Amino acid sequence: MGKTCKVVVCGQAGSGKTALLHQLLYNNHIPGSTMFSTLEDIYVAQVDTDRGQKEKVHFYDTAGLDPTKPQLAKQYLSFADGFILVYDVTDRVSFDCMDKLKKEIDRSKEKKEAIVISIGNKCDLREVKQVDFTLANKWAQKEKVRLWEVSVSNRHSLIEPVVWLTSKITQPQGQLGSSLLLLVVVCL
């Protein structure tokens, strides 16, 4: 086990950040259950990387951002090793928030390199989907961000993005490639 990773989970209020973490870490989220607004929570987990090593990860579950002014607290921008940008595929405004968040992260990175991924949550709600996968994929390619569509009701869909992110963050120096491979997990 190497360093402890610090991952900030952010997105608009109601996008499913807390539900995603509860299902991923505890397998105890019941879709449709009442969720309460998060001010800030920190979760600690052991994540198996793609190299077969367990790494300690602190997940910082942030308060839902105001869609008119999505701005993270400055402390998150300075210490994070990685970011998970969460949007709700049934809410176009939550997706538009991702672009503003990514630009804010890029502006404040300074010398610290952080890995950023994006997760489109609630992909099982196809009949009310407002964010087309093609649109999200184009944005992700332009921003050089890995993209996954997931459903909190399918815990398995949540594991791959977190393993990938943790593996990238803890990858030995000199092995961080500049190539981008866009991997997509689509709900079935």
Automatic annotation (TrEMBL):
Pfam families: Ras
InterPro entries per UniProt: KBRS (IPR042227), P-loop_NTPase (IPR027417), Small_GTP-bd (IPR005225), Small_GTPase (IPR001806)
GO biological process terms held by the UniProt record: negative regulation of canonical NF-kappaB signal transduction; Ral protein signal transduction
Protein keywords: GTP-binding, Nucleotide-binding
GO MF term set: GTP binding; GTPase activating protein binding; GTPase activity
Family the entry assigns: Belongs to the small GTPase superfamily. Ras family. KappaB-Ras subfamily.
Protein name, per record: NF-kappa-B inhibitor-interacting Ras-like protein 2
